[in-house]
Amino acid sequence: MRIVVCLKPVPDTAARIKVHKDGTRVDPEGVKFVLGPYDARTIAKAIELRGAAGGGNEVVAISAGAASGEAEAKKRIKDALALGADRGVFIADPTPENRDPLATAKALAAAIKGLDGFDLVFCGRQAVDDQALSVGPMLATLLGVPCVTDAVGMEVQGSTARVRRAAEGRTEVVEVQLPAVITGQRDLADEQYPKLKEILAAGKKPIADFKFDWPATPAYHVVSLSPPPEPIAGKIVGKGPEAVPELFKLLQSEAKVLTF
Amino acid sequence: MLQANTARVPLATDDDEALPGGGFLVAPVPGKNTFTRERLSDEQRAFAEAADRFVEGEVWARMEAIEHRAEVEGPNGKEPLVVQLTRQAAELGLCSIEIPEEHGGLGLDLTTAMVVSEALRGCASFATTLGAHSGIGTMPIIYFGDEAQKAKYLPKLATTELFSCYCLTEPGNGSDALGGKSTAVRSPDGTHFVLNGQKQFITNGAWADMGVVFANIDGKYSGLIVDLRAPGVVRGAEEKKMGIKGSSTTGLVFQDVKVPAEDLLGKVGDGPAIALNIIYVGRMKLGFSTMGTAKHAIDLTVKFVKERKQFGRPVIGFDLQQAKLAEMVAWTYAADAVCYRVVGAVDRDLSRLPDRHDARGQIEVLRRYGLECALIKVHASETLSRVLYHALRMHGGYGFCEEYQVERLARDNVVETIYEGTNDINRLVLSGALAEAVHGSSIPFMGFVDEVHRGLRSGDLDPGSVDGWLGAETARVFGLKRALAWAVEQAFIGVGQDVRVEQQVMCGLADGLIALAAAEGALAKTLACGEGDAQAAVRADITRLCLLEATGEVRRKAQEALTHALAPRARAEKLEVLERLLRWAEPAAEAPEADAVAIKRRIAEHVAGRGRYPF
Fold first, then answer.
1. How near does any CA of chain B get to the CA of A193, in Å?
2. Considering B420, B473, B520, B593, which one is annotated as catalytic?
3. Chain A residues within 8 A (CB-CB) of chain B?
4. Do B106 and A197 touch (CB under 8 A)?
5. B341: domain range?
6. Which domains does chain A have, with CATH numbers?
7. Which one, of B262, B303, B6, B282, lies nearest residue B135 by Cα?
8. Contacts of residue B108 in chain A, CB cutoff 8 Å?
9. Who's near B450: CB < 8 A, 6+ residues apart?
10. Per the domain annotation, does B247 fall within a domain?
11. Which of B58, B92, B309 lies at the smallest CB-CB distance from A196?
């Protein structure tokens, strides 16, 4: 079984994000880029499934990134290798500022088609930076395979995957014929910490370069990006039951969420 | 970088060959090839990130439970959470970095061990527990164990199947570490020793399975590997401590404990060598972890002062708070620079050994860096003290409350100035090593000072200039070296044979040397990062602030030391010479780099914008 995990470097969620002076994107200066939290879960699940399925299986980590910052972009693939993935594929992008989800999905599809077959493709349900939630379904369409979104659990039996989806107010269990694209939620697996030994081993695992002919112009582009409004500071009114009357009063008079 | 000067010692050099043994006092100012944190390899960076993520995700998230000694289900029943976290850390490899590969470890370089120590920040209870096990509880076996001992213990120490500790201190012997009274008597048939005695302040005392225990065998202090589950071992009650409350600190009593003869570490009488050599790495690690904690304290404080509003605006908007923040960052930057400069030099020397993994060779290299290890320990742990002093006050009343972490960090920091040799002891180690280097000519001290004397006689003290970015600052650091080296010489002449008795004078010189190391470290780091670095301007400001502070510190300490050491009638003249020399370490009064207030405002503005320690 060949399992592909698609990765995107995203700003650390603890980072202070500033809008770039061009007004359309995040200013990368001083921001630490990390593996997205959803991607980290899909890697853990992929490793688990590979282990369970026995020998002869592999996990391939694929990521597209700026050609100019190739070393940095490849680090996220190395993160996946350190977590146990077997090899990586990097798609250099000479004009990352032109990128939109469709172009990314096309690039990933081309790289995956070049793999000599695949059984499962994982994407995080979303990248925490642009939150487009579209690469996974687009990729499935381009590969001509089904897509199950928002997986919170799954197991594989032969060529069938049984996937648990957390949908609004309900849990759904679906069966899907492989190959398929699965987008993962946080609960898909526990996040794993890389072992130092695996970090050492990751340095020796191959990362292949895949050449993709990126479209010259984006299908859509961001016209403007504005930061969220300043958050209103919280208030601690006290501790324990004696704080309840004051809290109740403030919820009525100040927050106006209680109307009785 | 070019240098054009009249002195025999060149003013500056790109490389950093000035260490060890305090050689930096009389060496050219190092430049762009100095080892810094920014030069870590991708792998070392990945190790740091892995440890960072573990600490943030597993340790910080459970800090309150750790401090209250919460228990969880372990492999052999209930065990303290801090023990279980150490086991998890061991699974990731954090307890086996220095253990050779053939014994189940990773056999990685010292820099990697230090990067991981830095990551174990802001959680001293956990770091102490892990360090007592994998550092001082394991390293003696790596360095002094025979092959059988290594094969028997190291694989189990790597996984925490055996939990270790280090038993040196006794009720009557703390700083006087080698004077312990415990005894081990060889049995008539030679198969074992009978151990008797009492140990005090043993980290991991409550749960360690084994320990490296020091005792007198035939009157010679020796090291033994002792099974603490053996009959006759009595564990004392937990100490009620001011800080590191989540860790275990107990006494241990040994009553006729049988120790197999094959568990003697090294030879009879190797105790002092084991104890002294192990502590070098321990001091270095403590330097890195306190330096890491200082960065963490800055992160907490920046977040607080940006959110906390008084008089209708965030606290960070006030000039005095900006000054504190700038100082915290500058001090920590210098501590980071010194730590990495030293470990880079140690690893460089280790890599030059014919066999990188030869334990004796490693010890010999580390021993040469005894001065620098003591320097790092004092400087970083006290940098953290000063950073926390500001951090607490910038938190106002909240800083005094347990809910905000700086309160715990400040309590934990106290022991960091006490264990691994108190900072007083380390200052004496440092100044003693300097005296030895000066008298033993292991550093080219006399030639350097002779040059200063020649300049004083001829009236030409101009050290020349350095071209390029921060050239003036480079020349000023060189000026500071000349002033301090001259003061050291004069003080040594003044106190004569009383070097060991004149502790105040010696510690004053040690403080001067630490201040010089900080300023030079900051400069070298900034030069190594280069003028093209995105934060080059603020790095340069930090360097200037460190240099101003170091010059002030050297002036204060040298004045005090010389005033005491010199004959009263010689004082006025010599103190004037000191001033003449220090003038070369100072900026022109009209120069912008003389204005510390403006420098601090710029640093603070940058750090506030980044929202955290920015490097």
1. 7
2. B420
3. 16, 29-30, 71, 75, 78-79, 82, 191, 193-197, 199-200, 202-203, 233
4. yes
5. 272-423
6. 2-209 (3.40.50.620), 231-260 (no CATH)
7. B282
8. 196
9. none
10. yes
11. B92
CATH assignment of the domain containing B70: 1.10.540.10
Q: What is the pLDDT of residue B6?
A: 45
Q: Map residue A181 onto helix, strand or coil.
A: strand
**Residue appearing with tokens 């009557």:** B172
Asked if residues B26 and B481 have their Cβ atoms less than 8 Å apart, the reply is: yes
Least confident piece of the model among A3-12, A230-239, B246-255? A230-239
Whether residue A120 contacts residue A1, with contact meaning beta carbons closer than 8 Å, is answered with yes
Put simply, whether B46 touches A (Cβ < 8 Å) is yes
By CB atoms closer than 10 A (0-12, 13-18, 19+), residue A202 is: buried
Contact B57 A16 (CB under 8 A): no
Min Cα separation A232/chain B (Å):
10
Domain boundary among B423, B446, B475: B423
Shared domain check, B470 and B415: no
**Same domain, yes or no, for B451 and B579?**
yes
Q: Say if residue B4's pLDDT is above 60.
A: no
Chains A–B, number of C-beta pairs less than 8 Å apart: 51
Q: How far apart are CA A58 and CA A49, in angstroms?
A: 10
Chain B residues in contact with A199 (beta carbon < 8 A): 43, 46-47, 50
Whether residue B196 sits in one domain with residue B186: yes
Residue contact A196–B94, C-beta within 8 A: yes
The pLDDT tens digits for A15-49 are 777 888 888 888 877 788 888 889 999 999 999 99
pTM of the model: 0.89
What percentage of chain B exceeds 70 in pLDDT?
99
Q: Do B450 and B548 belong to one domain?
A: yes
Has residue B10 been placed in a domain?
no
Same domain, B258 and B330: no
Same domain, B159 and B187: no
Axis-axis angle for helices B445-458, B568-582 (nearest 10): 90
B615 falls within a domain: no
Q: Domain count of chain B? A: 4
Nearest to A193 among B42, B53, B108 (CB): B53
The CATH number covering residue B332 comes to 1.20.140.10
Is B115 an interface residue toward A (CB < 8 Å)? no
Q: Kindly report which listed range (A231-235, B352-356, B410-414, B555-559) carries the lowest average pLDDT score.
A: A231-235
- What chain A residue is nearest to B89 in terms of C-alpha separation? A195
| B252 and B387 co-located in one domain | no
User: Which pLDDT tens digit goes with each residue over B228-251?
Assistant: 999 999 999 999 999 999 999 999
Nearest CA in chain B to A201: B43
Asked which of B423, B445, B480 is the last residue of a domain, the reply is B423
CA distance B246 to B60: 13
Catalytic residue flag (residue B420): yes
Is the pLDDT reported for residue A138 higher than 90? yes
Maximum distance among all Cα pairs of chain B, rounded to whole angstroms: 81
Same domain, B359 and B224: no
